[in-house]
UniProtKB/TrEMBL annotation:
Belongs to the cytochrome P450 family. Gene3D superfamilies: Cytochrome P450. It comes from the Bacteria. This is Cytochrome P450. GO terms for biological process: cholesterol catabolic process.
Amino acid sequence: MSMRLEIDLTDVDMFVRGEHLAAFEHLRAHEPIYRNESAEGGRFWALTRYDDVLWAYGNHAVFGSEHGAILGGSFRSEADTAGGKMLVATDVPRHRLLKQQIHPAMSAAVTARVADQVRELVNAAVDRAIADGGCDFATELATELPAGALMVVMGIGRQDAHHLIGLTRRMIGFRDETFVDIGEDARLRLAWLQAEIFEFFADLVDERRSKPGADLVSILLGAEINGRRLSEEEIFYNCMNVAVGGNETSSYTACTGMLALVEHPEQYDRLLSAPELTKDAIEEMLRWSSTNAYVQRVAKADVRRGDVLIRAGDSVTLWNVSANRDEAQFPDADVFDIGRTPNRHLSYGAGIHRCIGAPIAAAELSLLFDRIVADRVRFEPAGEPQRLRSNFILGMTRLPLKVSAA
Ligand code: HEM
């Protein structure tokens, strides 16, 4: 078998076993622009070096987003696509106009309100974990981060927020039997989940039409692009973008970050003795976790990079998880160093589609780790963590920890 067939980046179990980092190290050294061929995921290019990934992010005129950020097209079928409707799957010039409309739902004022809500939920969850002497960090603590954000951004209650998190979690975990019966047809399952999510937002749209507020749905209902209101479908897609974009990423980053601190106790002690490092520590957790492992683009024209010719219509994947371990950019990239500076990781992407929720994610993570550090809470492993079966979102579905306060 030739080398090109040996690494298959659609092999989800390689990611579950944690063997992907070695595969990427090999690719960066030997075949940095890799032609992935696989039965399941089709053919695509994989960019694995930091400079190449950054180059593609910056070149949005050539690398379009309308085929969606996930390999394999939209969540449903080729005909029913989010392209041109959902922010993350929209190209310029419409992308810029749509982003302007969504921005007020992620403003500094909203971020401050998210912080207050998350603080309340996180404090209660940490208190519970200390009282119980332990918790499953993945299911009992980390999910409070997106819950707090959703409550404010969408203007919904805690129960509804957790219901929505359950739905998006199953959508992102559609290959993981923790969340779904993987015996069923994957496309049907996804179509059903998306329909459930859209139904949730349809109810919300009805409610906000009669009683508008300062939330995302109300903002989208009032939005106009080139003198036209958004269609209901566009509103649903963009609510889903915010929900899927924010629910899994921030909570899974918290899990991977927490596990890194548990596995590197000397770094945790360093953090306890220098709490002012928390901000840098969170950036390092973002780099280390690379929760959104890759995004997809499709080339709109032939383009050459080094000796590789990427042709119009080719699918190209930008591997944040590999770029974030590139030694050319990060000395001792495999060392978890909470004081790392500079730390220009690509975990939020780059260029025009760079994560619009980054300030909210940063607020969520800061509140959690500020609280833990302030109370000098100690965490120890209390069982095997279980990784999510996905090559797109890297996270943990189980993270049992013993918890004690100083
Ligand atoms: C640690 C947490 C997070 C990570 C790692 C993350 C990662 C990313 C990445 C890599 C992109 C770029 C996608 C692309 O280029 O195709 C992105 C975009 C986006 N994210 Fe996040 N995200 C996080 C948190 C959030 C939160 C909390 C929200 C919402 C409250 C959110 C909403 C979005 C949206 C709407 C986009 C599309 C932006 C655009 O296309 O202009 N994300 N995110």
